């Protein structure tokens, strides 16, 4: 039996996570936060001394892919609908959500052997229930036969504004220029890598959310999903 899959790809800060959580709650589907997988590998590779400022070699790639294959990664749904991420028995959800780890993630994500090591885990998540898959290559590589594909984007400036607001709300300091630079660097790396670059699938709906709030985005994507035969109960 196959279950419905909705893919939401796009750059950092476009609002994918916010949209995916709403869709998963409304449809009672599982949520795959594939960015968390690359963040975990990036963090673990950094901690193991495998990520430095130097260009990564073929040996580095093999070592990071071996480390990836040994990780026990679990997505545990919580009552709130959010998903806890547990690695080798320890929750890492709080530790991986920062721009430094986002940068590590983007480096290891450019390594084909690392992407290959994470592929089966991602594909298997569609075997148990309907799935909302959040990432960069969900519609192009991991779930090419998905029922509905979306590429959610926004200008780098709008995304930097959102990050600044998010950090301030969490009581943290935020340097707009530094955040904007980091977003642009990550976009550059993610969109131009040779393997699974971040881009819309040919059959994806592309939505620019720069001028839309999160509710407006949800309403548009819900309507799009309905045209693809996905049934919402509300
Ligand atoms: N349409 C929107 N308009 C304004 N702010 C938004 C919108 N969608 C999400 N946000 C806010 O922007 C911030 C980033 O959103 P979110 O984490 O969903 O983005 P993302 O695409 O998942 O980023 P990442 O790929 O880095 O995880 C959050 O604070 C969120 O509340
Ligand atoms: N399918 C994916 C998802 C993510 N990445 C890389 O991980 C970085 C972090 O992703 P977030 O969504 O958590 O911000 C991202 O910049 C990508 O480099 C990926 O390659 N493929």
UniProtKB/TrEMBL annotation:
EC numbers, comma separated: 2.7.4.25
Occurrences of domain Cytidylate kinase (ranges): 6-223
CDD domains: CMPK (cd02020)
InterPro entries: Cytidylate_kin, Cytidylate_kinase_dom, P-loop_NTPase
Enzyme class: transferase
Places the protein is found: Cytoplasm
Superkingdom in the source lineage: Bacteria
Reactions mediated catalytically: dCMP + ATP = dCDP + ADP; CMP + ATP = CDP + ADP
Binding, ATP: 10-18
SUPFAM superfamilies with a match to the protein in the record: P-loop containing nucleoside triphosphate hydrolases
Single GO cellular component term: cytosol
Keyword tags: ATP-binding, Cytoplasm, Kinase, Nucleotide-binding, Transferase
One GO BP annotation of this record: pyrimidine nucleotide metabolic process
Principal localisation: cytoplasm
Molecular function terms, GO-annotated: ATP binding; CMP kinase activity; dCMP kinase activity
Family statement drawn from the similarity comment of this UniProt entry: Belongs to the cytidylate kinase family. Type 1 subfamily.
NCBIfam families: cmk (TIGR00017)
PANTHER family named among the record's database cross-references: CYTIDYLATE KINASE, CYTIDYLATE KINASE/PANTOATE-BETA-ALANINE LIGASE
Name this protein carries in UniProt: Cytidylate kinase
UniProt organism field: Psychrobacter pasteurii
This protein's encoding gene: cmk
